[in-house]
Amino acid sequence: MKKKVFLTGLVSVLAISSLVACGKKSSQGAADNKDLSNIIKIAYKDENASNPNSKKYFDELSKLMKEKDGVDVVFEVVDLPGEGYQEKLNLQISSGDIPDIIYFQGGDTMSAEQGLLEDLNPYIKKSSYIKNIIEPHNEKRLENYPYLMWIKPATASVPVIKKKILEETQIGKEFQENPTVDNYTKLFKEVIGKKDEKGQEVKYAITTSGNTNELDSIFDMAFGNTQTWQKTDKGYIYKRVSENEKEKIAYYKSLYDEKLLDNQFITKKWDTKENAFYDGETALIAGTSGKVIDMYSTKAKELSGSELVVLPPAKGKSQGYGAVNLSKEDRGLAIYSQSANKDLAFKVLDFLASPEGQQLDRLGFENEHYKIEGEKITVLDESGEWYAKFWEPKELKVTKELSSPLLGEEANKSIDLVSEYYSEDNSFIIPDDMVAKWDAAENVYKETIADMITGKKSIDEFDKFVKQWQESGGQEITDYANEKLK
């Protein structure tokens, strides 16, 4: 379950309750001085008015909407920092100065509960483009929580390895045909000491960025953690306090003890994790399916001439990269419910799903990231620096035929594998009054398993950990889960 960031005591209940009124008043006051009928104010992480690329992007979007649909829109991008974005956004919302389109990366549920976010389902049903590109799991999330939209294929962390290293192992072929936990272990042992194209020698089999999330994507289901809440004879229990979890953590400890798992994995960040892979120190890393895997493939080729191979999830009691949460999007775009320009705001989101909108959002700027030659679009090398800001449906439709696929072979394979092993989770939105307890229980879990893997605590203390987890708030959430899921 993703943690959510909420407004703190800086905002009183009384202040929150008056946000809608404040927003109306603020908009009316501005309207007395200026015609706002075609202005869309947008808050988006890492995009701001002082960023020339952001300005160019939204200017180009405005131009395209005018040319194709005759829609006149002017964008005002809110200046919010990338660092601490959600906190600053919450403060702006609490002031009553609420953008028309808002990107949330957590922290949205309180705004939704206060009536500040628009139900998007009626708009989607009447849309010209979005209704044709929305993914099945997006539809289910919108049924449960209709305020946040994020159209992308289901994603997961998938492992990659340098092709040369995999081919030099004796287990390589057998592993790919039958990726059991035992065969994963054999592969991990065999890659130690192998060299890539630049003669860089592998020290560790795998590393992660500071926690076990990426390992869990490979191994969770193999150890039987198929859903967040596991059904037992006595009701539902949280997967992280199950016997399956205990067995899995014991396995991670064995990897750590044998120095197959990077012994510095706890201190790794995403960049140092990736550098360890590019520099040949570790044989495997995991990255988000799709674009991230494509970036890994491109950079590995540039730095060492290495081709990458995407690996399947471990096979055991079950197999998969983890069940997909359908309770809600954990990030995405929302529309302010009291905006005077709600219809125009949705037209913007819908246009971004059109061929013209997708061409800008997915390919970048013409003659910088791609070029048009006759009836073909050629993606340039510089496109590796570009990433979509909005929608990324599995099937890309632009104005002309692409001369080559947008993503490389392994990136597309990673998307296909996640789709092949797709399964649905039974997680749910944690009620606001239980969030603090949930966070406390989750922190107990994270700290304890890190200590167990690194040997600071014994795996024999697992039952003691379960009791501590329950006392920290986990039992109350478990009781709620049994009421929710029965």
TrEMBL record:
<keyword id="KW-0472">Membrane</keyword>
<keyword id="KW-0564">Palmitate</keyword>
<dbReference type="InterPro" id="IPR006059">
    <property type="entry name" value="SBP"/>
</dbReference>
<feature type="signal peptide">
    <location>
        <begin position="1"/>
        <end position="21"/>
    </location>
</feature>
<dbReference type="Pfam" id="PF01547">
    <property type="entry name" value="SBP_bac_1"/>
</dbReference>
<dbReference type="InterPro" id="IPR050490">
    <property type="entry name" value="Bact_solute-bd_prot1"/>
</dbReference>
<keyword id="KW-1003">Cell membrane</keyword>
<protein>
    <submittedName>
        <fullName>Extracellular solute-binding protein</fullName>
    </submittedName>
</protein>
<keyword id="KW-0449">Lipoprotein</keyword>
<keyword id="KW-0732">Signal</keyword>
